[in-house]
Amino acid sequence: MARVVVDVMLKPEILDPQGQAVQRALPRLGFEGISDVRQGKRFELEVDGPVDDAVLARIHELADTFLANTVIENFTVKVEEPAVGAEK
Amino acid sequence: MTARIGVVTFPGSLDDRDTQRAIRLAGAEPVALWHKDKDLKQVDAVVLPGGFSYGDYLRAGAISRFSPVMETVIEQAKAGMPVLGICNGFQVLTEAHLLPGGMLGNDHLHFICRDQKLRVENADTAWTADYVSGQEIHIPLKNMDGRYVADERTLDMLEAEGRVVFRYMDFNPNGSLRDIAGITNEAGNVVGLMPHPEHAVEPLIGSGRTDGLPFFTSILKKLVAAS
To answer: Where in the cell is it found (chain A) (predicted)?
Structure first.
């Protein structure tokens, strides 16, 4: 079993007020030197069976039509093999 | 002879009953449509009402857009059936790509509820013919994800083609680009806006104005004339 991770981020030109609110809180918490924060979404998909090209293509389609709205967001898809000795 | 106007109820819709009532007050026949039902019951037009369909999970409108009823609504809208999306309905229409651009959280990160002044920019759509271009109206606005965004090229296109239907006046309540409160598709049969015309149809309620009623009389006249 493998995990496929889809990361979704607002396009760079689109204002992210949540990220800005996080960034503004950082100096108060003693974190200096972070000039920008942008907040996105991470989807972890547990795939039954091997992750071959066909499965990846389907996940890509899923991300493109549903997990992300590509009018306002970009996404990336990556395969994450579970590490040896990891939970499960 | 009157017209049958469908109102879709999704899980989490809030304003379906108010919308049905507004349709009835305008003289048309409201028809309840269910999100799981592909059948549009032979209605002449459809309204997607406000609320938080499917809890706004993922993105506002993102899950509703794939509901069975929307399959038929999308198909019919492309064939010219009038469709109005109010608030969450507007979000569903952008997610369905029946209208360009997208909706995001208000720039101030708070829910907002107020009587909003708007200017009618386009009185030629199926839903706005009973207004006059340039008319200023007051309609209640209540939303969390009301910020209309699109790339510059799309915004320029909308402006050039007269497809900005409503613009916020005096105060931009959510950070919408170019003060856009509502837009239409190329054909003018699909309109989406964030403010709620169905909450401004009776003198007894709210601000006492009935500035939202022309949405429903506009569509009724158009449908009756076409029949």
So the answer is: Cytoplasm
